[in-house]
Each structure stands twice: as structure tokens, then as C-alpha cells.
Design goal:
Helix content: 40-55%
Number of domains: 3
CATH class of the largest domain: Alpha Beta
Number of helices: 14
CATH superfamily of the largest domain: Class I glutamine amidotransferase (GATase) domain
CATH architecture of the largest domain: 3-Layer(aba) Sandwich
Strand content: 5-15%
Low-confidence stretches: 1-7, 206-220, 326-336
Strand order of the largest sheet: 2-1-5-6-10-9
Radius of gyration: 21 Å
CATH topology of the largest domain: Rossmann fold
């Protein structure tokens, strides 16, 4: 879990190619640019670079001038590769062209590398995804599997985090990935402020379905939205599936089916994720003992909280709190 102090701006280099989607470039600058410390200091520096400095064509019938070449990758702590709609070598034959090979050779070992949408083809062609779990846009999944059979492709998720290498699905899921990276670096409070400033959802779990057949309820059809809103105000107490279904006057079976159609996951998984988010918020923003955090988030016991937090993030509550708050003033929390 990389963490950067507010005095140390983390450099992000965005490697663009002809056919760039301006939206994908803009959201990287916008979201990372909104991340600031408690003192208001920028936490990231974002630099756009191209394979060859100069004009880069976009898919919006405009071009942009990129001042930086691939040398900018040498100083980056994170390299991001967005999609490009013009024909390029990785999507055609799965191999890196000379310019991309040269660019990737400049990236320092240990640099975090991520892709948005079909930028995953570039990472796969560079050999960075072999044996790893990855995702890309669901419409490109068949071609990706054909070219890169050594990659564990999961086209049903919004993004995949493999530590130093991360991939995301279609355009908007890039927002989810960027917020996830900010949250991983600086915690939920910073990521939440970035999301609020950009007026986007603060957190969509990477395992959420990439393609939901009915994202908006049918006209006059029943929805599970009221039950979700009701549950969010009662996370600290037990909530049964039957209780949630009754809020919408549905059977458990109908509610579960409709919930999955609308949200892309089961009610139980959704509820667990919301409780993990609540626990993270309390660990970052309060000095409450871990037992109290567990109770307020709906996990009941510190042991249950530890298990769920470790499953989701690979850390204990005490380690998470120390990472994002430093030495806290709370009472001893036992084994954490």
C-alpha cells in the first residue's frame, strides 16, 4: 500500500498515443489534481507525455500538442496508459512497436503502472500482465484473450488491482480506478473529497459488474434503491435479506434478483462492502477503539472487523489506522 507524505508530491506520467480519448486524459489530471493534503498542498503532479513530443491526434477531431517525450517516464512514480482508438500494434498483433518498446524501457523498476480501457493491451504486450488478473473493456475481451492467453482476464469487473500493476475497464471505470489509487495512497477521506469535488460516486468496488443489463429500473417497475438508502443509515445493526426485501414489498428471491440487476452484485456482498467503507472512515477520522469501530460499522466484534478488513485490504485495523493517521490518541485496542 504505497503512501506519500503531503510534502512529497507523487509524479504521475500519462503516456498518450494517437487516437487518444480526451476524456480519459482529462479525468487523470482532474482527479489527481484535486487530491490535496490537510494543509491544502497538492499530493500529485501529473505530466502528459507522448511517444514522440509534438502533435497527438485525438478521437474528438482535434489535436493536442504534447511537450514531453518518453523521458518523462523515468521520473514517474505512477505511469498511466489510456486507450487510443487509432490502429496500434498491441491490438493488431499483440506486440509492442519500436516506440512503445523504447518508452517502456525507460520506466524504473518498482513504478506503479496502470491502464484505462483498452490501454490494457499495451501493458499485456509489454509482458506486465502475464500470470496476473486484469481487465479491459468487455467489448474487447475476446480479442484480448486471443492475443494474450497468459493473462488471467476478468472482463466482468470495473478494475483489477495487482499491486504494482492495475487495469480498468471502459471509460468511466477509469474514474473508479483513479479514486481507488488515491484511496490506496492517502485514505478514504482524501479520495472522498476528490470525488465530492468532481461530483462522482466516491467508491465503486473493483469487483462490481462492468456491464449491468438494467442500470435504471424499468418505468413503473420496482427498485431496490429505497432499501439500499435505508440500510446505509442502519449499518451498525444486523440487517437480514428478508428485512431488506420487505422494505420494497418483495419476496427475498425477487429482491435478490432485482438487486443484482441494478447493482451488479448480491445484497450481502454490497452490504459487506458498505460496512468496510464505514470502518475505514471511522479508523481514519476518529479515535474510537477498534471494538467500537467494529460495532458502529456492523461487524459486531473486533475479530470480525479484522477478518473483513484483511480480506478487503490485506491489513489489520490498527495497521490501517497507523498508515493513514500516524500515531493516534485512542485507547489501546488490543491485538488490532
Amino acid at each position: 500500500m504505497p503512501v506519500f507524505s503531503s510534502a512529497d508530491r507523487h509524479r504521475v506520467a500519462v503516456l498518450v498515443r494517437h487516437g487518444l480519448l480526451p476524456f480519459e486524459l482529462g479525468m487523470v489530471h482532474r482527479l489527481f489534481g484535486r487530491a490535496v493534503s490537510a494543509a491544502g498542498e497538492p499530493l500529485y503532479e501529473v505530466v502528459t507525455c507522448a511517444l514522440v513530443p509534438g502533435e497527438v491526434r485525438t478521437d474528438a477531431d482535434v489535436s493536442m500538442n504534447v511537450a514531453h517525450g518518453p523521458d518523462a517516464l523515468r521520473e514517474a512514480g505512477t505511469v498511466l496508459v489510456p486507450a487510443a482508438n487509432e490502429a496500434d500494434e498491441p491490438q493488431t498483433d499483440g506486440r509492442l512497436g519500436a516506440h512503445l518498446t523504447d518508452a517502456f524501457a525507460r520506466i524504473r523498476p518498482g513504478t506503479r503502472i496502470a491502464s484505462i480501457c483498452t490501454g490494457a493491451f499495451v501493458l499485456a504486450a509489454a509482458g506486465l500482465l502475464d500470470g496476473r488478473r486484469a481487465t479491459t473493456h468487455w467489448q474487447a475481451a475476446d480479442r484480448f484473450r486471443e492475443l494474450f492467453p497468459a493473462v488471467e482476464l476478468d472482463p466482468d469487473v470495473l478494475y483489477a488491482d495487482e499491486g504494482e500493476v492495475l487495469t480498468s475497464a471502459g471509460d468511466a471505470s477509469g474514474i473508479d480506478l483513479l479514486l481507488h489509487m488515491i484511496r490506496r495512497d492517502h485514505g478514504s477521506a482524501v479520495a472522498g473529497e476528490v470525488a465530492r469535488g468532481a461530483v462522482v460516486a466516491p467508491h465503486r468496488e473493483g469487483g462490481q459488474a462492468q456491464f449491468i443489463r438494467r442500470p435504471v429500473p424499468e418505468q413503473r417497475g420496482a427498485s431496490t434503491g429505497a432499501a439500499r438508502a435505508w440500510a446505509l443509515t442502519r449499518l451498525g445493526r444486523p440487517l437480514s435479506l428478508r428485512e431488506l426485501a420487505e422494505r420494497e414489498s418483495m419476496s427475498v428471491r425477487t429482491f435478490s434478483r432485482r438487486f443484482r440487476e441494478e447493482v451488479g452484485m448480491t445484497p450481502v456482498r454490497w452490504l459487506t462492502q458498505r460496512r468496510v467503507e464505514r470502518a475505514r472512515q471511522l479508523l481514519e477520522e476518529t479515535d474510537l477503539p477498534v471494538d467500537r469501530v467494529a460495532a458502529d460499522a456492523g461487524f459486531g466484534t473486533a475479530a470480525s472487523l479484522r477478518q473483513h478488513l484483511h480480506t478487503a485490504l490485506g491489513v489489520s485495523p490498527s495497521a490501517y489506522r497507523t498508515t493513514f493517521r500516524g500515531t493516534v490518541r485512542s485507547a489501546p485496542e488490543g491485538s488490532g
